[in-house]
Amino acid sequence: MGQVTPASGSAAPVERPPSGTRLDPWLGSYADRTHGMRASEIRALFAVANRPEVVSLAGGMPNLAGLPLDDLAESAQRLVASRGQTALQYGSGQGDQTLREQILDVMRLEGISAHPDDVVVTTGSQQALDLVTRLFINPGDVIVAEAPSYVGALGVFRAYEADVVHVPLDAHGLVPEALEETLTRLAAQGRTVKFLYSVPNFHNPAGVTLSRERRPRILEIARRHGVLLVEDNPYGLLGFSGDPLPAMRSMEADGVIYLGSFSKTFAPGYRVGWAVAPHAVREKLVLASESAILCPSNASQLAISTYLTEHDWKGQIKSFREMYRERRDAMIGALKEHVPDASWTVPDGGFYTWVRLPDGLNAQAMLPRAITALVAYVSGTAFYADGQGADHMRLSFCYPTPDRIREGVRRLAGVISAEREL
Ligand code: PMP
């Protein structure tokens, strides 16, 4: 049996844990909660999908080409020169006060009125998802989530050993009758539902938006069943037509934890998002965040705060919306032309369309052949906790140019027709 040599002295050699392997001698030591952890299908794809010859319709990277990089560089330089002692120092666990006030201006666009004390700044909304799940989930507790759901949220839920129960979406978002039926059934089974996780706007991956009419109904059902709503809204300001719909947090404060992010409307590299939560929950979120990260990055927060003060951020969002709309049009046009017998959602904002393959084709099985044909997508199976979704794929139109999107869909059409002949 192999041994780990002690660092020094004459102590007895340390035996490898009995269930270890040569690859990982600590295999027997991991906590149970790690057993559900696995690389996201998307991250696993990244290495190949990012090769220049591959048209990647897989990732959800925002396109930053329109950002005023020279101005941002100049602001960053000025920030460190004039406020470096603060920007480079530890900060508040809850987040910078000025930025929290500015976040209120952002959320006002979706009808939310809150107090700066209600806001907790996080390291992207991904950290907020982790904190919320850590606060509420014991192993085996139920989280009700849309079918399909954001893959990064499912990864967090799995890491805390939640049992995810899916509720269907249709073209108008989460189906209230199905939610009612699911919550009633789970209550009858004596299951504890801790929260409902929803992405109401320009859903990742489904591309659909919860209609205005359904929003109060979803809130009413959740309230009646005593279930907290986690409203995850990174895309809400990226609509292609009309004004943003009111957030559910604007209709109800006590039963909603709202998550926002600067990743899609500005830049994901700063890793700044936020949560707005009822008072007692918010205090626990701050404690949990402090124990995880001490405080969010001051440098990032002050850079974003400066950007919001000095730049026309609303104008920037408008130009992002126009860019993404043009790309959405390119993708939908190409799907109509090249794969007319598939079906897809037509998103009115955001980054994604959700495509149902024709003839019972399997998106997961087809993926290696798509990569060989130099086009990448994400198989629908990534977006379910229970292995469904092989008949769907998520196509993102955020990053490639319209011409590359058309070329990608053309390649995909070739893969699909070859697949039918297999
Ligand atoms: N929620 C959803 C629905 C997302 O699509 C993403 C990013 N892909 C996130 C949360 C996390 O975003 P971030 O941590 O960059 O704010």
From TrEMBL:
GO molecular function: pyridoxal phosphate binding; transaminase activity
Cofactor: pyridoxal 5'-phosphate
UniProt keyword annotation of Transferase present: yes
Signal peptide segment: none
The Aminotransferase class I/classII large domain, residue ranges: 58-412
Keywords of this entry: Aminotransferase, Pyridoxal phosphate, Transferase
UniProt-annotated stretches for the region Disordered: 1-25
Cross-referenced Pfam families: Aminotran_1_2
Any GO BP: alpha-amino acid metabolic process
Subunit structure: Homodimer.
Family designation: Belongs to the class-I pyridoxal-phosphate-dependent aminotransferase family.
Name of the protein in question: GntR family transcriptional regulator
